[in-house]
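Students often ask what a holo structure prediction actually looks like on paper. The answer is less mysterious than it sounds. You provide the chain, you provide the ligand, and the output is a string of discrete structure tokens encoding the 3D arrangement of the protein together with S-adenosylmethionine.
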Amino acid sequence: MVTKRRAGMSDAENEAHREGAPPKEAQLLAACHAGDCARARELVEQGAEIFVTDETGRTALHFAAASGSAETVRFVLEAGIPWNALDVGNYTAGDYAEAGDHSEAYDELVQAGVRAEMVLRMLNKEPATGAAANEDYLSQPVEYSGDKLVDAEKNGVMMSWEAPLMELHAQTICPAPGGAVLNVGFGMGIIDTALQGQQPGKHVIVEAHPDVYQHMKDEGWDSKPNVHIVFGRWQDKLDEIRALGPYDGIFFDTFGEFYKDLADFHQAVFAPVDGAVPLLRRPGGIYSFFNGLGGDHKLFHDVYCDIVSADLRGLGVDTQFARVASDVVMDEETWKGVKRPYWMIKNYNLPTCTWAPADDDRS
Ligand SMILES: C[S@@+](CC[C@H](N)C(=O)[O-])C[C@H]1O[C@@H](n2cnc3c(N)ncnc32)[C@H](O)[C@@H]1O
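The corresponding structure tokens follow.
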């Protein structure tokens, strides 16, 4: 899983892989690989099966993406191959487009992903599916071991390789001393330590796990003069969090929660449904969150970035992603002692969310 083979294909390799496929389907994959949309369409009209893969699980979409032809990618998507199909090497079609530097083909895939996820969301309007996972996590012990914090199943809750990112998040939400900041999720206290360095006037930390809360007290966080700890799930503590606000800077980074929880938090930060005041000060407040969305595949991640900024836009928020190049090598060593790597992407998209100008005017 960690050491992936590179997404790419040589002609010779492809010929070999296509040998086993039935003639029409082999021709279809070849047409896709050549970016010959007209020929691919013709073959499908003549009855070629689009849902064919080669022996390494590559679909017509992987071949079309490798060709760089956005038109062929669009055709294959319309013919029914899902945007998020994986080959046996765990590669998306996006990986093939990226390997060939085909940005137009890549964008087609991202847009298809965004459309599909939006439709799915409309169909699945059900209550927080994440609650059970989060409650399971909170009821079991966690373990600190120097460079990481893991849950009972050795899932990485927080790891020290994220420290440079936390430093940037702290500078983003607290660019000057004296303001009021809110951080949801203490973990290893990396961002809270960085925030203390920025000298906020008030520093509120929300943490729900009893072991983490104990760790905070052991480290003396409860006696720092400008720090207020709110112990409990943020969902259950909104009144208390609100009473300590509004905040000039807010950061969100929890564990065992789902996109729905993040979206609910955004609602509380920017547009509470119950008519309460937003947690973020208006105007001028800055919000950011740990952007690990879809972090094990670049294509999935890019789709989520588009979705989250569209959702935030709907709340009157402008989101800018700063691309942070990471020099952390993501290999077996990085993830030693952790069940599953949760981040496999080269660049980190650090979100800065502010009130969109039209909303600023309303203040
Ligand atoms: C990824 S860690 C945060 C790491 C932190 N940003 C740092 O710099 O070390 C996530 C933290 O959120 C806490 N948490 C999980 N669910 C929560 C919830 N619903 N409300 C508040 N805290 C929660 C976890 O116990 C954990 O300490």
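Residues 63 and 103 are 15 Å apart (CA to CA).
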